[in-house]
DNA sequence: TCTTGCCTAACGACTGTTAGGGAGGCAGAT
DNA sequence: ATCTGCCTCCCTAACAGTCGTTAGGCAAGA
């Protein structure tokens, strides 16, 4: 691929990095996400993105400093925004079971609502520079650790039964990330339906599906 | 990307397609898998693959008709060989629980043993032509359907408790494919350990984790 | 003599990116 | 009310390099 030599045009770059027309930017990110999804980051050129946006390739550099920035913006839609939306659920109101169910529903719903970005975030991370990669992975790890802590606390409280909460967190995330690989809007299940069912399955996975069986550990709460 | 115009050199292509030196071929596929994993299919050029194999780019065409064939061979290691190895387990000896456990262990173990190929198969399918893509997806669907049928039969037999065996098959596969995204050889868990734990979690997921709780449906077999 | 496995050289197309300019709109000065 | 200067958003043209692939040849072994 071509070079990105350190130019004296620092001013130009700084301006392009600072959002100019925000809605136009979001529009272009959406177009790029779709193409990255269809053909992969390296499989799509700036000229192809530009053509899909009915613009010239060079004009993209008015909004974004580089192709990588276009990718990063796509990925933020998933990794940054998901954590911001979801973490409050774990610290919010309700029983551990209720909160886990809300988390899973929100997670699967987010996949359904941001399909292109999820696809891209799932397989194009390696195209990011180390610096940006680290930034994105901090969000991921925060989400993962928060879920691990939550499952540990829920087990402590007798609502779940996880031998190894950290591993259970990975297993739950592996499962609920799965629909990103196969779910399609015109498939057998609507996304809300799928989210509800996966929530129930996630409860099973962490030993929190109490109703049909009795609790594994002594608990004080009724029912 | 460059063209693949219909050439009159059909003979050359046919010869390259028929395996020549099988072990050399496998070696080159291994090198290609590794690079595809690290940088993505479109992120790696034939010259880079050649250099890693200590060869000239043009020489690769002595063994493979095209770059796509190199990718296809990488993917076969997963999608074709996995199905061939694993399907007999489902039709083999043992209780449903035992067979599911063997399947999960084999699946996770296969990921650990073929990391590069799994990574590539997980995210570079779109680079295949429709024709080859369909071929690969037939294997995937066969695996998925076989697991769905198996879970339905196991539920019928009272060993599992799946409301929707097809969906449970997807959930189990989503979970056990997960380690492909994050497992590393020098991590906290050895692959065999992880395989054993994920097998136990998969049993939970399908309602087949009898020992700590009593069976949900009437069964005759002891314990 | 034929095959295998590699080589050098070249093709045309495409890569990310930059330089530089032009049209239109808006703010402030005259 | 008009002019001036700046900012936004887009353009054309070009750069140096890389892409997948093919043609043609050469040395070693059967």
UniProtKB/TrEMBL annotation, chains A, B:
Q: Where is the HTH tetR-type domain?
A: 22-82
Task: Provide this UniProt record's keywords sorted from A to Z.
Answer: DNA-binding, Repressor, Transcription, Transcription regulation
UniProt xrefs under InterPro entries = Homeodomain-like_sf (IPR009057), HTH-type_TetR-like_transc_reg (IPR050109), HTH_TetR (IPR001647), KstR2_TetR_C (IPR041490), Tet_transcr_reg_TetR-rel_C_sf (IPR036271)
Q: Where is the composition biased (Low complexity)?
A: 1-20
DNA-binding region extent: 45-64
**Superkingdom of the organism of origin:** Bacteria
Question: Which SUPFAM superfamilies does the record associate with it?
Answer: Homeodomain-like, Tetracyclin repressor-like, C-terminal domain
Q: Which GO terms describe its molecular function?
A: DNA-binding transcription factor activity; transcription cis-regulatory region binding
Where is the region Disordered?
Answer: 1-22
Which PANTHER family does the record cross-reference, listed alphabetically? HTH-TYPE TRANSCRIPTIONAL REGULATOR RUTR, HTH-TYPE TRANSCRIPTIONAL REPRESSOR KSTR2
Task: Report the protein name in the record.
Answer: TetR family transcriptional regulator
Q: Which organism is it from?
A: Pseudonocardia halophobica
